[in-house]
Amino acid sequence: MATFGTLSDRLTETFRNLRTKGKLSASDVDGTVREIRRALLEADVSLDVVKQFTATVRERALSDEVNQALNPAQQVVQIVNEELIAILGGEQRRLEFAKNPPTVIMLAGLQGAGKTTLAGKLAKWLKKDGHTPMLVAADLQRPNAVNQLQIVGEQAGVPVFAPEAGNGVGDPVRVAKDAVKQAERQQYDVVIIDTAGRLGIDAELMKQASDIRKATNPDEVLFVIDAMIGQDAVNTARAFQEGVDFTGVVLSKLDGDARGGAALSIASVTGRPIMYASTGEGLDDFEPFYPDRMASRILDLGDVLTLIEQAQEAFDEEEARKVAEKFATDSFTLDDFLKQMQQLRNMGSIKKMIGMLPGAGQMRQQLDQFDEKEIVRTEAIIQSMTPSERHNPKLLNGSRRLRIARGSGMTVTDVNQLVQRFDQASKVMKTVAKGGVPNVPGMGPIPGAGYGGRKLQQKKGKSSRSGNPAKRAAENAALASGVKPSTGAETSGGSGFGLGGQKAPSGEDLAAVQKLFGRR
Q1: CB 396 within 8 A of CB 294
Q2: Rg from Cα positions in the chain
Q3: Where are the beta strands (DSSP E) in 156-285?
Q4: CA torsion 69→71→73→76, rounded to 10°?
Q5: Residue 340 C-alpha from the chain's centroid
Q6: Consecutive 10-residue averages of pLDDT for the chain (520 residues)
Q7: Which of 371, 384, 435, 514 could disulfide-link 408, Cβ–Cβ 3.0 to 4.6 Å?
Q8: 212-259: per-residue pLDDT in tens?
Q9: Could you give phi then psi for residue 250, rounded to 5 degrees?
Q10: Which helix (H) or strand (E) holds 288?
C-alpha cells in the first residue's frame, strides 16, 4: 500500500537514529520531535493536529516513563504509536444497525470522492456478513450516475432502487423516501443511499443532503472523503459537519496517496471516527478502519492481524490439513499447487499482503517492481497440462513441454523453470513436514531451522550424470572437493514458482529475511 509511504519512511529513519543512543537527553528528544513535526507537515497533516501531537509526544518523551526505561528509544516509539492511535480515532467503531430494519445508511461527500463505487463495496461487504442490502440511486444530478450505480450493484450482486433516470431529472428526496418504504415491503435489512455531490461546497448541495437526511432519518451518515485532497480535506469535512453532520468517515482512494495526511487530520478535527477505508479500484478493496493497525503500518510495525483475518477468509482449514498431509507423504501435485495459488489470489493483492509484514517498508522498492501477473502466467502453464501431467510431472518430455508452452502462450524455458521450482519446493516442504532442516537451493540449510534435530547427510560415492563430458568432469571435481555443484536452478530466472530473471538469493538477501522475521 502506498498510503503513508513518505511519512512511514521519514519516521522509520528518525527512530533508527534514536536506537543508537543508550540514554536520551532533552536535545535528543527535541531533535526527534522536530523531525516528526516535519514529517507530518510534509504528509499534509493539519497544522493544529501536528502541534497538539508533537507537544504531547515531547511531554511524554521527557517524562520519567522514558528516563527510567531500559530502552528509551523503544519507549519513544511506543509513545508515538499510542499518540498516532489517539489522533486516528482511538478504537475502531462498527456500524450501528437499527432495532427495527431496515437500517438506513446515507453517503455524503463531494463529487469525485468515490461515493458510488463505495456504495457497491459497502453493500458487497455487508452481503458477505449475512445482510440483505439495497442500493438507492439518489444522485440524479451527475450524468449517468444512476447507470453507474446499476452497474456497480450488478457487480456486487445487490439490487438497485432507481425509479428515475437521473441526468438532472427527478426528485432525490422523494426517491430516498420511496426506497425506504420499498425496503420495508421487500424485507431488505440495509438501505444504502447514494447522494449527489458537487465539485465544491455550495448551498444547493448542503440543502439537498440535509433534506434527504430529514426525510429518511438515517441510522448512519457516512462522509466519504478522497484521501488525496490533502489539507482541503479538513475544510471540506468541517463544512459537511456543519451543513449535514455525519456519524462516521470513509476514506476512499487510500491506496493512491503516499502522504495520506487527510486520515491523520479528519478524526481529530471533527471528532467523528474513521469507519472504513477503500484501498483499491476493485469491489473487494474495502476494509474496516482499525486505528491501532493503521498506526502500526505507518511505523512499519506491520499489520499481521489483518493478514491473518484475510487468510482465514480465503483458506479452508480442512483443506490446509490435507495439503500438509500430502507434503508429508510426497503426494503434493501441481493440481494441489494450482488450488493453493487460486486461494492465495482470493486474499487480494500479493503486494498488499507482503506490505502488512513487519519491516516491509524496507522492501518497498522490490515490492513496487513485483509483477503480480507472474501468478496468472504460472496458472496458465499448469492449466495447459493434462490431469495426468499435473499428477506426475515426470511425464513431461520435450514434446509435451512444447505443447504446454504453446497452449499457455509461454516459452519452453518458462515451463522448465516452473517444473524445477515445483520439484525444489516439494522437497523443501516434505523435509519440513517430516521435521527435517530444509536445504534451499543456493542457500544451503536454513540457519536456525533445526525443526526436528535431523541433519542432512551427503550421499557418498555420488557422481555426475551429465551427458556433457566437460560439464561432467567439472561437477565430479566439485563433488570431490566437497562443494555442491550448480544445478542451474540456483541461478536460473524466476521467483518462487513464478517466472522472470532473478538470481539466487545471496547472503545479504538471507540476512534481510532473517531481520524481517525478528532474527539477528
Answers
A1: no
A2: 28
A3: 160-161, 190-195, 220-226, 248-252, 274-278
A4: -30
A5: 19
A6: 61 72 77 85 82 88 69 78 84 87 91 89 92 93 90 93 86 92 93 86 82 92 83 81 88 68 77 86 86 77 57 61 66 78 66 57 57 78 90 88 91 89 75 57 45 39 53 56 44 40 48 47
A7: 384
A8: 999 999 999 999 988 777 667 778 888 888 888 899 999 887 766 555
A9: -120, 125
A10: strand 286-288
CB-based burial label for 203 (10 Å; 0-12, 13-18, 19+): exposed
Asked if 189 contacts 102 with a C-beta cutoff of 8 angstroms, the reply is yes
DSSP state of 169: B
Q: Which helix (DSSP H) or strand (DSSP E) does residue 445 occupy?
A: strand 444-445
- End-to-end alpha-carbon separation of the chain, Å? 27
Query: Model confidence over 19-51: pLDDT tens digits?
Result: 666 677 788 888 888 888 888 887 778 888 888
Cell match 507537515: residue? Answer: 41
User: Around Cβ 42, how many Cβ atoms within 10 Å?
Assistant: 13
**How would you write 314-361 as a 3-class SS string?**
HCCHHHHHHHHHHHHCCCCCHHHHHHHHHHHHHCCCHHHHHHCCCCHH
**All 3 cell numbers of residue 444?**
544451503
- Pairing verdict, β 444-445 and 439-440: antiparallel
Sign of CA dihedral 138, 142, 147, 151: negative
> Which residue type occupies 62?
L
Instruction: Give the DSSP letter string of 473-519.
Output: HHHHHHHHTTPPPP-STTTSS-STTS-S-PPPP-HHHHHHHHHHTT-
Cis peptide upstream of residue 102 (ω within 30 degrees of 0)? yes
Per the structure block, which three cell numbers stand in for 31?
531533535
For residue 111, which of 243, 207, 200 has the smallest C-alpha distance?
200
For residue 103, give the H/E element and its range.
Answer: strand 103-108
The pTM score is 0.60
Q: Are 306 and 297 in contact (CB under 8 A)?
A: no
Scanning the structure block, which residue is given the C-alpha cell 443511499?
Answer: 193
Which value, to the nearest 10 degrees, does the dihedral of the CA atoms of residues 415, 441, 346, 299 take?
A: -140
